[in-house]
Amino acid sequence: MPATPITFFNRLTGRLETEAVYGEGFLRFTYENPLGALPLHALVKRAAFSRWYGRRMDAPASRAKIAPFLASYGVDIGEFADAPDSFRTFNEFFYRKLKPQARPTAPGDDVICLPADGRHLVLPDITRCDDFFIKGTRFDLSALLRDAGLAERFGHGSMLISRLCPVDYHRFHFPCAGTPGAARLINGPLYSVSPIALRRRASIHWENKREITLLRSAGLGDVLLLEVGATCVGSIMQTYTPETPVQKGAEKGYFRFGGSCFITIFEPGKIRFSDDLLEHSRAGREVYARMGDVAAHALG
Predict the structure, then answer these.
(1) Helix, strand or coil for residue 175?
(2) Running along the chain, 300 residues long, what does each successive block of 10 average in pLDDT?
(3) Which residues contact 27 (CB under 8 A, 6 or more apart)?
(4) From the candidates 120, 170, 173, 280, which is the catalytic residue?
(5) Catalytic residue check, 173
(6) Annotated catalytic residue, options 62, 117, 158, 205
(7) Residue 260 falls in the annotated catalytic set
(8) Which of 158, 162, 260, 281 is the catalytic position?
């Protein structure tokens, strides 16, 4: 049976495109082949595997992987804050900084921006989502947050899921201004967050290791910001200072090597997502767009 390709709408080109999946053969064997279940549960999902792989990406020898990666995936080196040959390891290249002008933040007090580069999916009302990647599966907000009070408050809220691939810029930013609290860690396994994996196990988002930050915003009330780890993401690094006000677009932190995910959750009735995000999410299709682009507008 032929593999189902991952298609997405590219906001930059205005076209439907097919994703070039980094490590696709390994992913499809692990999550789609029955024989892959053994290495998945015995090794791949475990933190020790990601720590081991992360150490490989921190080794000086990993520097040799940078040039072939750039050639294979067409990464724009003109955006880099530092020259490609300045990175001492692949991980340094992976969580690279960009020139400020490479990711301008959408202006406007009523505009919420995307927190990261990647492929984005929205749930306008979390409670009413009954087809989260698998038909009949509801997004389990209570399991995600591990806080019954927050789950009740945000149950009819709006969710933005931003999936970062290894080829993407891997720093994440605040989607709106406010005052962030400290990040709360919830430990868990490290399954892949690729649609290849989610089509078989939709619960990955509320199982994987994650960190939760509550951002208090004057115009939007409380906003929840979650970094979700994944296979080969050894660390979620926070670079912001808790309880210190931040501006929209300010850096919050970065992921070390691997695909990963950033989730933004708004209180009910606070925002309306951009039309292209709504249209393609209804079709079960992600939208590729970059950090700083418009994600939503505030209501009222």
Answers:
(1) coil
(2) 75 91 48 42 44 70 92 91 94 93 96 97 87 69 93 95 91 98 91 73 82 96 93 78 98 85 96 97 94 95
(3) 21, 192, 194, 196, 197
(4) 173
(5) yes
(6) 117
(7) yes
(8) 260
